[in-house]
# Entry
Amino acid sequence: MLLIRSHIFLFASMFFSCFLSCQNSGSTNTTTNQTIKNTTMPNSFQKSEEEWKKTLSPEQYYILRQKGTERPGTGEYNHHNEAGTYACAGCGTELFTSEQKFDSHCGWPSFDNNIAGGERVKQIADYSHGMIRTEILCAACGGHLGHIFDDGPTATGQRYCVNSISIKFIPKK
Ligand SMILES: [Zn+2]
# Structure
């Protein structure tokens, strides 16, 4: 009996150590996309790339799913000052308010905070194009929004630099 028990223990510990090493080997592949700030929000809007292609316009797919950037000064909301909220164009989660928007003169809509104070916008280190930047994504669907910088002129000191194509304006009723 004792022998069987020790066998079970041995098997269980082998399985556990294999599980741990598999986990470690998986995480070594993510050196270029380290998560700085994660959220506990469920990813209830996750779709396959094929499904995203069907639901988004080609421009939205390029920016939201392939991390593209719209040309500066060309976005629909660059000089947009109506009262309301800005939702993720991918999943509809409300991300920013018109009160959080400010004119940064950088060519893209800019916000000094997000609606949930951090929970709805995920931040990830981005080392692409030879720069060290922090990418911002919709925490619910993983859609690329833009980048965040700590040179904002308001009290938060933050500048959420967002592609107009990544967001959809909802006027205040
Ligand atoms: Zn989203």
The beta strands are 35-37, 84-88, 94-97, 101-102, 110-111, 121-126, 133-138, 144-149, 159-162, 167-171. Residues 45, 88, 90-91, 93, 138, 140-141, 143 surround zinc ion (CB under 6 Å). Residues 47-171 form a domain with the Metal Binding Protein, Guanine Nucleotide Exchange Factor; Chain A fold (CATH 2.170.150.20).
